[in-house]
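Me: Here is a favour to ask of a fellow structure person. Could you put it straight underneath, so I can go through it closely?

Assistant:
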Amino acid sequence: MDDRLTGMMLPARLAIVVPTFNERRNVPLLVELVAKALADIPWEIVFVDDDSPDETADAVRALALADPRVRIIQRYGRRGLSSACVEGILATAAPYVAIMDADLQHDETVLRAMYERIGQGDVDLVVGSRYIAGGGMGDWSEGRQKMSRFATKLALRLTRTPISDPMSGFMMMRRDAFMRSLPHLSTMGFKILLDITASAPVPLRVAEVPYIFRTRQHGESKLDSLVLWEYLQLLMDKLVGHIVPVRFLSFAMVGGLGVVVHFAVLTLLFKLLDQSFGLSQTVATLVAISSNFFLNNMFTYRDKRLVGWGLARGWVSFNLVCAFGAAANVGVADWLFSQRSYWALSALAGITVSVVWNYVMSALFTWQKRR
């Protein structure tokens, strides 16, 4: 019996969790490279696919029929790199788990060094670092490198764990260490390492090994211009998430921008274009509500964002929710004012009620998970 078949029969000591979205062409290459890098180590690879349009999950299933070390979790109706990593880790029994990308930018040959280092028993986490001797950023532009270094400085202020590359997406950890962080994870955005280290009840023992960030093999990067917003959301969640949900803060911030939009449209129509106040107020309200809807869809509910007909249904739903919220605003404020409350406090109470109503009801009816 050859070594490959022997490895298949042994329980996996190491599970490599790989989140995917439109990586059909890369997954067979990654499996082949991992098999070569870990030839004498009992391993399995768990792909967690967010229902890729290019049928990545089907490509993984085809590989799994030939190699039982290959596994697939296909998610439907939800997205997110960090949450995918968590589900992948929870789906394996291996005592050691690694996380890496499917785009071949992480050097799979470093997995052996990580495994040997964590096997010594004196660390909880081994991080693949681009910022220690022997590591590198590959062909990243100077601007992207500066942004990465800035994000790294922010991360180091939050975590209690000294890591040269807290933004790394390439790591290996002990299962028991992960389970200690699990109850406090945010699973927001794409920086799972930062989430794990910041969520640990006691600082993790960390070692680092160098690697050079490589060029993507196939496909396009999934990181768009809003990843910085997701990163800031994660930082805010770790700082104040135990007091108030970060999603609510984002919703309230968008609402504040909506007030600015409302008055801008009202001023334009009523003061500059000499339209009636009633018409100007109606148009300003509709524009502000629509502005809030699209901004919340882009930022607050980025992981559940609506597209196509869902976007149209969501807009109608959001308008109905806000109509009831406006009625609640007026009702509460008017009642408090009738009870001899100061007018400004009455108005503030009405606004607070409407914001909370709009947030809760839109979460339930506008950005609910649809099957």
User: Anything to note?
Assistant: The chain has two domains: 3-238, 246-365. Residues 130 and 161 are 17 Å apart (CA to CA).
